[in-house]
Write a structure and sequence with these properties.
Blueprint lengths: L2 H8 L9 H14 L5 E5 L6 E6 L2 E6 L4 H13 L5 E6 L12 E5 L6
Parallel strand pairs: 3-4, 4-5
Antiparallel strand pairs: 1-2, 2-3
Length: 114
């Protein structure tokens, strides 16, 4: 699934943003209801860690809290992995990222509550 299609699917959905776990559960529900194949907590290796979701070759990381620097470092690690062709950062935080080695898209999940 392309990052743009993933963003269209998730945009405008009111999801629980109180914790990352609750938000991940709601994202999983949306993906499953749409019949989208995905892997949750996909292991990318000892150095890279686990990304919240892999939807085809698109990584999907969920962030509710955390410092911008930590989020940036995590996104850099994911983009460096060969299996991640693009990254969607779905977050409730106002954040911007510098240009990374792969296409990165930011989905502001809090907009659905406006």
């Amino acid at each position: 699934m392309s990052p743009e299609a993933l963003i269209r699917l998730l945009s405008g959905k009111r999801m629980r943003c109180s914790t990352e776990r609750a938000l991940q559960d709601d994202v999983e529900t949306v993906l499953a209801a749409a019949g989208i194949a995905f892997e949750r907590e996909h292991y990318l290796g000892a150095r890279t860690g686990r990304i919240d979701f892999m939807v085809g070759n698109t990584g999907l990381e969920i962030k509710v809290k955390g410092g911008a620097r930590d989020i940036h470092r995590q996104c850099v690690r994911y983009c460096e992995h060969a299996s991640v062709e693009a990254l969607v950062l779905a977050t409730t935080r106002a954040i911007s990222l510098p240009t990374l080695s792969k296409p990165v898209f930011i989905l502001d999940l809090s907009r659905a509550w406006l």
